[in-house]
């Protein structure tokens, strides 16, 4: 299985700051809870990777500004 393999699993994703100055991605699904903590710099790198993937998936269109 890889990143392109479809799965019929539902999960919730929450993102927010912790009281320790970290950024937490909290994934909950399938009876599991997965908290992942990142430094602010790591979180920015992850955000850049997500934006790059969204741009590739959307045919290279730039992100819309709000």
What is the secondary structure topology, with strand pairs?
Layout: E1 12-17, E2 23-29, E3 32-38, H1 40-57
Antiparallel strand pairs: 1-2, 2-3
Overview of this structure, please?
The chain is α+β, with helices and mostly antiparallel strands and 66 residues long. It has a domain at 12-57. The chain has one helix and three strands. The radius of gyration is 14 Å and the shape is flat.
Summarize model confidence as the mean pLDDT: 91
**Proportion of residues in extended strands:** 25-35%
Counting DSSP H or I runs of 4 or more residues, the number of helices is 1
What composes the largest sheet? 3 strands, antiparallel
Which structural class fits the helix and strand makeup?
alpha+beta
Number of strands: 3
Whole-Å distance between the termini?
36 Å
**Helix-strand topology string:** EEEH
Strand order of the largest sheet: 1-2-3
Uncertain parts: none
Q: Please tell me what the overall shape is.
A: flat
Helix content: 25-40%
Gyration radius, in Å? 14 Å
Sum this structure up briefly:
This protein has 66 residues and is an alpha+beta fold.
